[in-house]
Amino acid sequence: MEKKLTIAIVGATGAVGQQMLQCLEERQFDVNLKLLASSRSAGKVFTFNNQKVTVKELTENSFDDVDYALGATENDLAKKWIPWANAKGVVVVDNSSAFRLDENVPLVIPEINPEDIKKHNGIIANPNCATIIAMVALHELHKEYHIKRMIVSTYQAVSGAGVKGIQDLENQLKDPDAPCTAFPYPIAYNLIPQIGDFDENGISKEEWKMQNEARKMWHHPDLLVNCTCVRVPILRSHSESIFIECEKEVDVNQARELISKGQGTILKDDPQNKVYPMPLDTTDQDLVYVGRIRKDLTDPTGRSLALFCCGDQIRKGAATNAVQILEKLIQ
Amino acid sequence: MEKKLTIAIVGATGAVGQQMLQCLEERQFDVNLKLLASSRSAGKVFTFNNQKVTVKELTENSFDDVDYALGATENDLAKKWIPWANAKGVVVVDNSSAFRLDENVPLVIPEINPEDIKKHNGIIANPNCATIIAMVALHELHKEYHIKRMIVSTYQAVSGAGVKGIQDLENQLKDPDAPCTAFPYPIAYNLIPQIGDFDENGISKEEWKMQNEARKMWHHPDLLVNCTCVRVPILRSHSESIFIECEKEVDVNQARELISKGQGTILKDDPQNKVYPMPLDTTDQDLVYVGRIRKDLTDPTGRSLALFCCGDQIRKGAATNAVQILEKLIQ
Prior knowledge:
alpha/beta, Dihydrodipicolinate Reductase, domain 2, 2 domains, lysine biosynthesis (chains A, B)
């Protein structure tokens, strides 16, 4: 009888960590689970495969009995504990952005570049949530038409800022004076066109991620992306309005067929019958919904397309993608 | 002593009609006010300049004693009553879309094409709300750089669907099963990428308005606009993420200065210090807030710019603009 693998979730009590636990269970991982978090959360108890698992404090010695780790911590912490895990031979799938653009670290969406997983040196980075949703939506179109340029406006859920973001929205909807703990301004009945800090060109970190991470995963260093990232008062699904300009002329019906057959996508595109992607429908779903597909009539060359897509930011945008990488690693 | 003018508001009990009343009062119109609505609303009483005004039922004879009328009714009704008003010599500023593209009817934003008011034949059309907000934001840039192409993604408040839209959001936030009276799907915690019906190309009526109305007001028949209109769970300000491609090379600092000096706009653009337009800030304001101005780095010619703008949909997007037209008419 084979020995059961031991999987650690680091940052187990946050929104993404909790979703990772749920995804492992749903995807029938028959493993020992180790839950790690700060001393503040140690002692909390969660259920995995009908067994109680107690959260342990993350320390340098946490990884002695671990085979793989899923990381759901902020960058600073990730930079600290991932070397501890690697030193014990533990391979880490990390959801922070600390290592995403490191050339020694593959950045992977399993539907897009699973072959990059093999090149890992102990770390595989999980991409930014908005980037995952856009790239899954666009991948079949990119393979067929070769995307040169993307203009993206996002509608990003408060869950992108974790449990605090969700609480801010819920509290502020009840009481407009409830404090802002996750965002610079109230988010109830509001939009905030800032996700991450801005550089001197007025472009936010989140906006750069879409270009830089997409270039890396598509192995397409010339890709041009202009992105405006906006936080909206939605709980947990991100939506994106995307315009793409391609090398080849696009065909709307073919584009629809490509997306309907694509991995990780579901076509929701019959607007005259009120069928289109909406974030409420993708909540707690792993698939990216794609619709509103139409020719961009402002490009006379016929090589541009507009579409709208939605995906659950905590699932496919974070936890599910990491667990899918782990599945491929273990195979 | 001059005789006081009599101004009628037709559709006086809706969200836009009520805002028209408030705008007339704020802008110190010393006039007799006549409030007209359906028989259902007749008898309701509102206060204007400290006097009670009782809503009367709209009939063919409603305009005998009227000088000017502000229209805040749906298209079907507008087509019915505006001829009654015109037959009595009453000039109408109409907020419906029934006459906007009629070549005998000027379509006007006073900051943009006030000279067109003079060409009226009894009707002046008030533009679509999202179009007004975008064009006010862009007008100075258009004068300087000549906009060829716009790619717009909107974030439109529920007030665009009137009082019912506001009630749907408020009710559904309290009870997710509250009925949808204004929208095809629940809007609380959701986005709906549909505003207006779709044509066979998958483009909605609201999306066409941005191109067709902008072409008319800028007298720019070659303007190309690709627009994705999305309803968001916000009460009454519309926001828009806009990319423009111009004839001339753009300069970000000059663009900021043009907007800061422009009519109807206020520059909110210091993202590193968390200054950018947000719909909560523009609620109940007449100015359009513009920020997030940056070069579109995906256009190697340097002729493209990205920005984000917000404006109160009921005020500048509807009632204020109509009252401003009326001011010019009376002058």
